[in-house]
Write a structure and sequence with these properties.
Blueprint: H1 5-13, H2 15-26, H3 29-45, H4 56-74, H5 85-90, H6 97-111, H7 114-125, H8 130-137, H9 141-158, H10 171-180
Length: 181
């Protein structure tokens, strides 16, 4: 059975979300793009298995997640860069505070256990409901809620965020912005 034009358009519309999720899983833009491409290809080939009226995003995220973990198991013996030292030598230092904050966030996110990171990305960044995220991960809704909560707390601890005022520009930058107004 061939995918309908509506299903095709919905799959194409999901690509940015799939890419963000893939990037959160693997941390490599090129590999994330490959994961998304393989996900769309697999979904297209198996479009007859998609049940109309169900959540397409959840189905696509499940395909991507399962493919990523299958590939990860296959490549465990490959050379890795766990501390990022090799990658750090290839990248230039950020020029703005926002880039530094994003880098700090990515580093902290990578330090979370994979299950917590996955739950936080699906619920927080992708906007899936707890129920849909639980379906993607194949766990109970309470488990997803717990993982997302622990992930948020872990990020706050790793980023040393105690109160909402700790988010955003530091006090010196805020003062400079206020003086310019």
């Amino acid at each position: 059975m061939t995918a309908t034009p509506q299903l095709r358009e919905a799959m194409l519309a999901a690509i940015p979300s799939l890419r963000a999720f893939a990037l959160s899983l693997c941390g490599n833009t090129d590999y994330a793009d490959d994961l998304v491409q393989d996900t769309i290809l697999r979904a297209w080939k198996n479009s007859d298995r998609f049940e109309e009226g169900t959540n397409l995003h959840a189905w696509l995220f499940t395909i991507l997640r399962n493919f990523y973990y299958s590939e990860s198991r296959k490549t465990r013996r490959s050379v890795e860069d766990p501390d990022g030292s090799y990658a750090a030598r290839l990248a230039s230092a950020p020029e703005q505070h926002g880039k530094c904050d994003l880098q700090d966030f990515r580093t902290a996110l990578a330090k979370l256990p994979p299950t917590q990171r996955e739950a936080l990305i699906l619920v927080g960044a992708e906007g899936l409901s707890y129920e849909d995220a639980a379906q993607v991960c194949g766990v109970a809704v309470g488990t997803i809620k717990s993982r997302a909560f622990r992930a948020r707390e872990g990020l706050a601890r790793l980023l040393a965020v105690d109160v909402a005022e700790d988010l955003g520009p530091d006090r010196v930058t805020q003062a400079a912005l206020q003086a310019a107004l």
